[in-house]
Amino acid sequence: MSGEMFRMFELAQQGFACSQILLIMGLEARGESNTDLVRAMTGLAGGMGFSGENCGALTGGACLLGLYAGRGTAEEMPHEKFDLMVNELVAWFKQEVGAECGGINCSDILGDGQIYKTATPKCSVIVSNTLEKVKKILLNAGINFSGDLE
Description:
Helices cover 59% and strands 0% of the residues. It is mostly helical and 150 residues long. The protein has one domain. The model has no long low-confidence stretch (mean pLDDT 90).
């Protein structure tokens, strides 16, 4: 198990949701922490507030792209390819996860109307794959996962 996988497992064991794990990983890669941001990501957990809607790995991945390439101040502009980056993530998620699971909602992925409350092996794979896809999308846009421009 890689160090990154171990860290994701550790976070899941601590009770963090998919969306939170992705942002924690992104923040840590930048040498940062932000408990308010991690707390806010709870709203995406379990498919948006445990409603079973859009998977937290997908919405968390979009937020992770925003952390690296979005707009944060009035003076700042998002990366010129930000919208394309998010669209690429969504298309990939629909193809990779949605096609296999019958949809991109948390309840589709877990089946039988279940909603994520604790880490599942299926969720772990999806979160890991989503993190890797986000890294590739960022790299293709000239952004290292550490946050440095290439």
